[in-house]
Amino acid sequence: MGKPIMAKATAVWLVDNTTIGFKQIADFVGMHELEVQGIADGDVAAGVKGFDPITNNQLTQEEIDKAQNSPMHKLELKFNAAAAGEEKRRGPRYTPLSKRQDRPASILWLVKFHPELSDAQVSKLVGTTKPTIQAIRERTHWNISNIQPIDPVALGLCKQSELDAMVQKAAAKKAAEGGVMTDDERRKLVSTEQSLGMDADAKMPTAIEGLETFTLAGGADDDEEDEKKDSDFADAESFFNIPDSDDEDEDDDTK
């Protein structure tokens, strides 16, 4: 329920001009019952001029009469002047000053890992403008060489539930348009809860891909050559058997 403007002055007027209970007045103006009682005793709001809620289109005389006749009746605001002309503002999410320097990194992360998100969706998630998103998409941002992609959830720019909802919305829109998604895109569109419950697929890194069929060059010919070499040197003693020379025979004869 809306509250009247100039709540304390309205309470002063109701205390001075009606017989409505303190609890009813307190609930209507948003004050504590003891504060309203203090107004009646003169301890609170001394010197405050009463504000007539009837002439200011906040209460009707019929509403006041109902409250006076029934202690359980709750006063209802007729017209909230403070809300006149006020509309819900639509625009980028407000980002605290301490986190604004992190927005380019989060935008780059969303553009890189969730390219299906539109500029409007990215803007709604991290609270930025479309020119900034376009500059990062086209890599024309003045600081693009120093920007590293960081998850906006880790930076505190949005909630995981908000990111999941936006990704699912993008997936539904793409499916409605009949677009064909690749395996990588479909994997990115899975929510966090679903991805945590999936079995990890065994995938060989690209750096060692193809090594499972790797064989040494050569084959049977090299094996035969190795066996031949082994047979030539099968007798190790042949290395140390030095044949007797003629000079040694002559020495023996002389002796």
Write the topology of this structure.
Layout: H1 7-17, H2 22-29, H3 33-41, H4 61-69, H5 103-113, H6 119-126, H7 130-137, H8 152-155, H9 160-176, H10 183-188, H11 192-197, H12 220-232, H13 246-254
Highlighted features:
single chain, 255 residues, mainly alpha, 13 helices
How would you describe this structure to a colleague?
The chain is an all-alpha fold. Among the domains are: 76 residues, no CATH class; 99 residues, no CATH class. Helix content is 47%, strand content 0%. Helix 1 packs antiparallel against helix 2, helix 2 crosses helix 3 and helix 5 packs across helix 7. The longest helix is centred in the middle third of the chain and has 17 residues. The chain is elongated. The mean pLDDT is 75. Pfam families: TrcR. InterPro entries: TrcR (IPR010421). It comes from Sulfitobacter guttiformis. This is Cytoplasmic protein.
In short, what is this structure?
The chain has 255 residues and is mainly alpha-helical. It has 13 helices and no strands. This is Cytoplasmic protein.
Number of helices: 13
Instruction: Please report the distance between the alpha carbons of the first and last residues.
Output: 136 Å
Report on the biggest sheet: none
Structural category is mainly alpha
H-E string: HHHHHHHHHHHHH
Amount of beta strand: under 5%
Shape: elongated
Radius of gyration: 43 Å
Give me the count of strands: 0
- The portion of residues assigned to helices is 40-55%
Please mark out the parts with pLDDT under 50 across 5 or more consecutive residues, or reply none.
Answer: none
Global mean pLDDT: 75
